[in-house]
Amino acid sequence: AVIVVSVELLINKRCRQSAFGRILSAIDSGLGLRFILAKLEGNQFELMFYSFINISHSGSNSVILVGNFVGVAVILYMVSFIGVQIYIAGIVWDEVERISREKTTPEINKTNPVNKEDGIKKGKTEPQHLFHVVKREKVPKWIRLFTIFFEEYKVPSRKRELYLGPIFSVLTFLKAATLNLLADNPLAQVLSSLVISIIYLACMMTWNIKISLSLRIVDCITTGLSIAYLILKAVTLQTSLSEPIRQNILGLLMMLILYGIIVVSISFALFSLVLILFQLCKRAILWYKNKKASISEQQHSSMHNDSALGNLMSQPPVKGGTEDPTHLQ
Fold first, then answer.
1. For 23-37, what is each residue's pLDDT tens digit?
2. What's the pTM?
3. Average pLDDT score over residue span 265-270
4. Which among 263, 182, 259, 186 is positioned nearest to 228, based on CA atoms?
5. Is the Cβ–Cβ distance between 192 and 178 less than 8 Å?
6. What is the mean pLDDT of residues 295-317?
7. At 287, phi and psi to the nearest 5?
8. CA-CA-CA-CA torsion sign (257, 263, 266, 271)
9. What is the Cα–Cα distance from 178 to 48, expressed in whole angstroms?
């Protein structure tokens, strides 16, 4: 980020903007506020967990006080983030219901027929992206940026499906809080995390809101593997187990589960990358074909004009007239 900002400042040193404006412009073009918000959402467990740890071990040290301030700011942001998601979900659902009523009203259908690509059709098997139906402008401008967390969703059939994101944030908040409160009881920590993970998996499997089937499958598999890991971890905490069983059998199974989570995540990332490259190649081939067809059509039109001109030049002059081929041309 420092390199990006420095280069941007050197390039735009003659710009009339202030140095602060150029820094903001460089950050927005290099990283962007969307990227920062996505990072905060993706690492919300770590942020809240370490914030709770810092607050619970607070003291009179100035460094600790600064950490407490940052921790409180992070927790307040996460709570506000949950509220903003719930608020956006309510607005989006109201708009979906309004559009559904308009599409199913006979009077409206007679005067204003529905486009199959834009409307919400009953019995349609192809899932529609949420923001292909609901316009982002319906969301207030001051929170419109947070609609990026709904970009993976399709048009919901029930209102509660839109609350999958807020539920995940609430469960993450509870997990971070319970892990700090139950720091002296490892088994209780594992069991609380296990219950929270099972609740999230049940919600994710029941509420089919993701537009991408592969993304939903990956989320279910990784969450299921995490639940299996927590179950084995709870078993290893039993004092009645012998050390060889704990280390050689259960430990090996836990290691394989961790490898499975990594393999699934990397495979999905590679699949997404290959899919993007395939789409780009498909667009490039289509653009090349269209350009080639356009050039061929221009050449054919030019040859046709030359042929017509040659035929016109080869015709004999008109009797009794003053026109010559050059004048006819």
1. 656 555 556 677 778
2. 0.69
3. 86
4. 259
5. yes
6. 65
7. -65, -40
8. negative
9. 11
- Comparing 247 with 326, the larger pLDDT belongs to 247
* Cβ–Cβ under 8 Å, residues 193 and 175: yes
Q: What is the mean pLDDT of the chain?
A: 78
Q: What is the DSSP letter of 246?
A: I
Give the pLDDT of residue 55: 84
- pLDDT of the residue at 22: 59
Helices of type H across 31-61: 33-42, 44-56
For CA atoms 220, 222, 226, 231, the dihedral sign is positive
Calculate mean pLDDT across residues 142-169: 88
Please give the residue that has the higher pLDDT: either 230 or 111. Answer: 230
**What is the mean pLDDT of the segment spanning 77-81?**
92
**Which helix (H) or strand (E) element contains residue 90?**
helix 62-104
Q: Which two tokens stand for residue 193?
A: 């995390």
Q: What is the mean pLDDT of residues 77-93?
A: 92
Per the CB < 8 A criterion, the answer to whether 85 and 149 are in contact is: yes
- Residue 81: partners with Cβ closer than 8 Å, 6 or more residues away: 40, 41, 44, 146, 169
Cα 75 to chain centroid, rounded: 23
DSSP string, 228-245: HHHHHHHHHT-TTS-HHI
Q: What are the Cα distances from residue 131, in Å, to 157, 167, 186, 187?
A: 15, 21, 44, 44
Which two three-digit tokens encode residue 87? 């608020």
Structure tokens at 16: 């009339």
Q: Tokens 């050059």 sit at which residue?
A: 326
Residue whose structure tokens are 């593997």: 225
Report how far residue 98's alpha carbon sits from residue 118's, in angstroms, rounded to the nearest whole number.
14
Place of tokens 């319906």: 138
